[in-house]
Amino acid sequence: MRHIRNRSALFAAISAISVATAAPALAEEIIIIGAASAQTGGLAPYDQPALAGLRMAIDDLNAKGGLAGKYKVNLIIKDTRSDTAQTATVTQELIDAGAKIMITPCDADPSISAGQLTQPLGIPSLTLCGSAPVLTQAVGDVMFGTYPADNLQATAVADFAISEGKRKVFLLTSPDATYVANLPEYFGKVFEKKGGKIVGRGTFTMNQPDFSAEITNIKGLAEQPDLIMTAAYEPDFPAFIQQLRGAGITIPVYGADAIGTPTIKALGKLVDGVVYTAAGYPEAGSKLEAFNAAFTKYAGHAPESTYEVNGYEIGLILDQAVKIAGSDDPKAIRDAIANLKDFEGITGKITYAGTDRMPIRPVVLMRYDGGEAKYVETVVPAAADVPAP
Amino acid sequence: MIAQQIINAVSLGGVYALLALGLAIVFSIVGLINFAHGELMTLTGYALLAALIAGVPFPAAVLLAVICAAIAAVAMERIAFRPMRGASVTSLLLTSFAVSGLLKVIFQNGVSARPQAVAIPGWMTGAFSFGDFTIGVGPTISIAVSILALIALEFFLRRTVTGTAMRAAAEDFDVVRLMGIPANRIIATAFLLSGLLAGLAAMLWVASRASVDPLMGFTPVLKAFIAAVVGGLGSLPGAVAGGFLLGVIEVLLQAMLPAALAPYRDAIVLSGVIAVLLIRPQGLIPAVRVQRS
Q1: Average pLDDT, stretch A67-79?
Q2: For B117, which of A175, A248, A263 is closest by C-beta distance?
Q3: Would you say A101 and A31 are in contact if contact means Cβ atoms under 8 Å apart?
Q4: Mean pLDDT over residues A92-116, rounded?
Q5: CB–CB contact A238 B211 (8 Å)
Q6: Phi, psi dihedrals of residue B86, rounded to the nearest 5°
Q7: Is B215 helix (H, G, I), strand (E, B) or coil?
Q8: Domain ranges of chain B
Q9: Is residue A269 classed as helix, strand or coil in its secondary structure?
Q10: Per the CB < 8 Å rule, is A213 touching B213?
Q11: How far apart are CA A227 and CA A167, in angstroms?
């Protein structure tokens, strides 16, 4: 008897709760955004800042009623552990949870594995800061890059190196990740076209402990390079440059966006003269400066890099796309993103129209000097100079 | 060029030898492959970083960090492995994976998923010319430390009572206990030594990488495992030989392999390992008594 009474009480409680939660759901529309991002593992240092920016954007937008002021966002975040297979698993979970927009990790390989699942369903998918231009082509028309693409970044760095008078480059790549494998090669293409020469190539295995053999090979080159170009990042970049300088080689090393991090900056004198790229630079009075101040207030710490603002801009892009689409239909949102032209973000104008869904946007060149990141210049490379992916 | 590559190979081989020895010492006594050995290295790295941030001078910070590793190794045995004593090899192996996984998550959530830069003093990044070629200070220190550590360990095992007891325990633990040597002391000493070796190896590792990250222990422990297996599981001279062999093969392949074959480097190294094991299934220098469950 007691047992049955309890059960009916429970039933009453459950129905009360479901009525309570169902009521507001009728009043406003909810759109679910799934974020498959690395909270642990090698990609976490990149995914997390980008995701922090996106969360801030979602909070700001939700305070104004949601995407297009109408669709409150429910952001569901799942950990990919920096693992490509795990990324596919959590993407499927997010799709099952009803995600209409998918956010994927900062690297091509896991983003492509997520895209394999979202493409057949037509769910627009945006990588947090994956920048390999092959990434969108490998998946199809639902996949969008957000960060300046590798070939765009490489062109900016190559133009700069040529303008400095550099003519002989050594390219250090690793076949283990698309970014690390291809970016220096894009650089090489532009560099050669503009009168430079590739005097040697070397490869490494990501996370390899020792670069001494590669460094000895560089030392033994008949024609010494005046520049080493690599897209290695943490922890390989610190290891490489530590061992390079330790072997008495003073040739400058240039890289790209993945070395624009507090860890690399904290290497101090070791990275003096290293040139890298960013998605923006907070000049006095700029929108980015205001964003950085707002982010600091939001997160309790200053942005580590431009991945935060890039994440925030993803929120703005989605807001704009839903405004244009006028609905939360994934296909309409996808079409709206694909046709964005000169959309005013925080770092500058962002254009998808006429691209392979890798945006055209400004690239900022930066240089480490005495433990500080110094601004060099902002460029938008000529489209004709950018090598094909 | 060749001379330079030989120095590179010896320098890397020395670190591998230290790591493999750390695994082998514990295996020879308790039959456990401690896959959390790499996390001892990570812990040492963070200890060094913390000491440097606290303003401890570099040499003292290094000493502190290595001591930290030794204490951590003993604590690991006391907390995780002693309750499992006498368990099957598989259970021990799984316990070590659990400890390793747990520590990784603690590092990621407690410190940061992002690698932390470690300020290595400028003089360690220097290089000096020696006749025709330049030798980095880093590799020199690496070689010197490896050799000194190997000599010190050999001395400890040959010339002290505990050392002798440990060598005996590696051959037949039961008889050693019948002689009145406490098992706990032998096992704790084995972990202490493996912790010291992990600490030293971690210092050399961090000095050449300039950063510590939560996952940094994985690659070294894998290499150490390969080296220990090639050398002969549980055999200390074997671990040293395996470590140096692995270092030499890796550096030579990196140096000599044409660019088209470079991506297959690891595959070639591991094929070499299989070849060695086909010819000598017990390893290069087999242990006197291989422990099996």
Answers
A1: 95
A2: A263
A3: yes
A4: 95
A5: yes
A6: 85, -5
A7: coil
A8: 2-279
A9: helix
A10: no
A11: 8
Best interface-test mutation with B: which of A174, A216, A270 has the largest number of B CBs within 10 A? Answer: A216
- Whether A239 sits inside 8 A of B215 (CB atoms) is no
User: Which pLDDT score, from 0 to 100, does residue A20 have?
Assistant: 47
A24-149+284-362: what fold? Answer: Rossmann fold (3.40.50)
Is the Cβ of B254 closer than 8 Å to some Cβ of chain A? yes
Q: Which residue has the tokens 């244009």?
A: A324
Q: What is the per-residue DSSP string for A279-294?
A: S----TT-HHHHHHHH
Instruction: Find residues 203-242 of chain B whose CB sits inside 8 Å of chain A.
Output: 205, 207-211, 213-216, 218-220, 223
Measured CA to CA, the distance from residue B128 to residue B57 in angstroms comes to: 24
Residue A221 sits at the chain B interface (C-beta within 8 Å): no
**DSSP secondary structure string for all residues of A6-57:** HHHHHHHHHHHHHHHHHHHHHHSEEEEEEEEE-SSSTTHHHHHHHHHHHHHH
Q: In this predicted complex, what is the ipTM? A: 0.85
Residue A302, class by beta-carbon neighbours within 10 Å (0-12 exposed, 13-18 middle, 19+ buried)?
A: exposed
Tokens 């009916």 appear where?
A: A8
Contact A270 B210 (CB under 8 A): yes
What does the domain layout of chain A look like in residue ranges?
24-149+284-362, 151-282+365-385
Residues of A within 8 A of B134 (CB-CB) are: 219, 247-248
A306-331: per-residue pLDDT in tens?
999 999 999 999 999 999 999 999 99
Largest CA distance in chain B: 60
Chain B residues within an 8 Å CB radius of A48: 113
Where does B2-279 sit in CATH, by number?
1.10.3470
Mapping DSSP to helix (H, G, I), strand (E, B) and coil, where does residue A272 land? Answer: coil
Chain A residues 269-288 with a CB less than 8 Å from chain B: 269-270
Each residue's pLDDT expressed in tens, for chain B with a length of 293 residues: 778 888 889 999 999 999 999 999 999 888 899 999 999 999 999 999 999 999 999 999 999 999 999 999 999 999 999 998 888 889 999 999 999 999 998 998 898 888 899 988 878 777 777 766 677 788 888 889 989 998 999 899 999 999 999 988 888 888 888 989 898 999 999 999 999 999 999 999 998 888 999 999 999 999 999 999 999 988 889 999 999 999 999 998 888 888 788 788 889 999 988 998 999 988 888 877 645 44
DSSP symbols for B178-196: HTT--HHHHHHHHHHHHHH
User: Which of helix, strand or coil describes residue B119?
Assistant: coil
Beta-bridge partners for B59: none
CA distance B13 to B179: 38
Cβ contacts below 8 Å, chain A against chain B, sum to: 134
- Tell me if A213 and B209 make a contact (CB, 8 A cut-off): no
Tokens 């790295």 correspond to: B45
CA angle B164, B169, B174 (to 5 degrees): 135
Contact list in A for residue B120 (CB cut-off 8 A) is: 242, 270
Residue A354, phi-psi category: left (phi > 0), alpha (psi -120 to 50), beta (remainder): left
Can the peptide bond before residue A235 be classed as cis, meaning omega within 30 degrees of 0? Answer: yes
Dump the DSSP string for A294-306. Answer: HHHHHHSS--SSS
CATH number of A151-282+365-385: 3.40.50.2300
Angle at A130 between CA A125 and CA A136, to 5 degrees: 50
CA angle B215, A136, A152 (to 5 degrees): 85
DSSP string covering A350-366: EB-TTTTSSPB--EEEE
CA distances from B48 to A55, A105, B53, B60, B150 (A): 34, 32, 9, 9, 23
- Rounded to whole angstroms, how far apart are CA atoms A40 and A198? 37
